[in-house]
């Protein structure tokens, strides 16, 4: 059973999503919150598999709530999916930097929404390669040097190469083609890099690649 926490300051939005989720036999809404602080408290109480969090709320917003959840070792199994009305914007990239597994636009069709919840529950990132490229091209302007990428020195040369290609928005099949290896080997390199860099998922691996300087934005 996939356990879901719904977080949105608009009751009507929450009730709409809940109505969809309640129809699914493998999904259970365990709690609802109207702000980020309440979301954190309920996440600790219920330990959901997926937290669907609105990006813009009064008080503690979705980005800060995501950051606090990602920083809490007790909530390592909670996969945050950001909900937004605005599509791809700088707030989405900030949320990914904070630890979100991906994002959904609120006008998503029901079948895609339910699929996304299941994908997030598996621990996979909700970022298609095309979206990754758009994020990079639009919002990443210079490599960051925050030291977030602790463990970079532990990567093998092939793992570094794979991570750099992930940061370019390539899929596993595309990475395999570039590196002249099988898709399974490419996936293994990526998974090992995620473990060494302590990245929660592929989305955070992209962010870490830029913050560590392993990957550089176009034109830099």
TrEMBL record:
The keyword Phosphoprotein applies. It comes from the Bacteria. Keywords: DNA-binding, Phosphoprotein, Transcription, Transcription regulation. Residues 3-121 form the Response regulatory domain. The keyword NADP does not apply. Coiled coil: none annotated. The modification 4-aspartylphosphate is found at residue 54. Residues 148-213 form the HTH luxR-type domain. PANTHER family: TRANSCRIPTIONAL REGULATORY PROTEIN NARL-RELATED (PTHR43214:SF24), TWO-COMPONENT RESPONSE REGULATOR (PTHR43214). This is Response regulator transcription factor. It comes from Streptomyces lonegramiae.
């Amino acid at each position: 059973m996939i356990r879901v926490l719904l977080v949105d300051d608009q009751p009507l939005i929450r009730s709409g999503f809940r109505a969809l989720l309640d129809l699914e036999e493998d999904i259970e809404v365990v709690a609802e919150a109207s702000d980020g602080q309440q979301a954190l408290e309920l996440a600790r109480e219920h330990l959901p598999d997926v937290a669907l969090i609105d990006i813009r709320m009064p008080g503690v917003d979705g980005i800060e709530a995501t950051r606090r959840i990602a920083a809490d070792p007790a909530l390592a199994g909670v996969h945050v999916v950001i909900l937004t009305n605005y599509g791809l914007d700088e707030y989405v990239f900030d949320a990914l930097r904070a630890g979100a597994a991906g994002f959904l636009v609120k006008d998503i069709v029901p079948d895609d929404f339910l699929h996304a919840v299941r994908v997030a529950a598996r621990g996979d990132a909700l970022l298609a390669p095309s979206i990754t490229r758009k994020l990079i091209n639009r919002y990443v302007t210079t490599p960051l040097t925050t030291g977030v990428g602790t463990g970079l020195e532990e990567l093998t040369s092939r793992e570094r190469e794979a991570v750099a290609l992930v940061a370019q928005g390539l899929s596993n099949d595309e990475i395999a083609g570039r590196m002249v290896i099988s898709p399974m080997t490419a996936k293994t390199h990526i998974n090992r890099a995620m473990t060494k860099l302590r990245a929660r998922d592929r989305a955070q691996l992209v962010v870490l690649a830029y913050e560590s300087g392993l990957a550089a934005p176009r034109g830099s």
